[in-house]
Each structure stands twice: as C-alpha cells, then as structure tokens.
Amino acid sequence: MAKLDDKQEAGIGFITGIMGEAFGSAFRDSAASDRFGAPITRMAATACFHDAWQHDGISRKEKSIAIIAMLVAQRQPLELKNHVKIGIANGLTVAELEGILVQLAPYVGFPCIATATTAVIEAMREAGVSPDGLQTSEERGLL
User: Fold this and answer.
1) Residues in CB range of 30: below 8 A, 6 or more apart
2) Closest to 72 in 3D by CA, of 120, 126, 15
3) What PANTHER family does the record tag this protein with (predicted)?
4) With left for phi above 0 and alpha for psi between -120 and 50, is residue 28 left, alpha or beta?
C-alpha cells in the first residue's frame, strides 16, 4: 500500500465531498493501492482535485463548464459522464448542460455532439435530474 501525501489526501477529500462517500472510498482505495493505475490516481488526486479544482480564480461551476466543454471536444464520453455529475453537484442545471451542447455544436460538429448528448443524458439519469421521458438518439432510433 502506498502512503498518500497531504495534497493527495486533500484532493481525495475534495472529490469525496462532491461525488459522495462511495466514489471517494473507491478513489482512495485505488490511490493507496499498489495496483496498476494507482500512480495515475495519485496524480489525479494532486493535480486535478487539489491543485486545479481548489485553485482560486473561477468558480466551481465555471470550472465544470470548462472541463465539460473540453471533454466534449475531445470525445471522451466516459470521463464526460463523471464531470457532468460533478457539474450538477456544482450547480449546473439541465438547461445549462443543454446550452453547453448547443454552444459547442457548430464548433465541434454534430457527430461529436451526438456522442456527448448520450453521455450527458446518461449522467443526468444517474444524478437523478433527467427530465421524464428524455431519450438518447440511440433510444429514439436515430443512431
């Protein structure tokens, strides 16, 4: 087992506060282990959840918007789902999430937005904020 430093502990405490005990516990277990990927988890605890997320300058909600936009543009649907849930915890609304996708569409293209929309809908469902009856393009038979 690896010993976590103060920055890593603070980063894990931060993400636990946003994502909840189950996520935080799994994150801590991964970071403290000697398993494959543990060094990357420790780096994320320090660089992402301590240094970047706790840096002053813009609000948590603004940080979520920036990260969501970057993940959409990079076509990273799995990580996007995590950050949509973080964004919701940071105060983003369903209307704002849709607004981000609308704003990005002409810049990243419709295929990219279709992938992102599915991830956003799934994340909203998991967070319990999805409007009733909202379906992905796949569920509607469009993709």
Assistant:
1) 37, 38, 41
2) 120
3) 4-CARBOXYMUCONOLACTONE DECARBOXYLASE FAMILY PROTEIN, CARBOXYMUCONOLACTONE DECARBOXYLASE-LIKE DOMAIN-CONTAINING PROTEIN
4) alpha
How many CB atoms sit inside 10 A of residue 81's CB? Answer: 21
Tokens standing for residue 15: 């993400």
Cβ burial, residue 141 (10 Å; 0-12/13-18/19+): exposed
CA dist 94 and 11 (Å) reads 27
Structure tokens at 69: 């936009």
Alpha-carbon gap, residue 100 to 103, rounded angstroms: 5
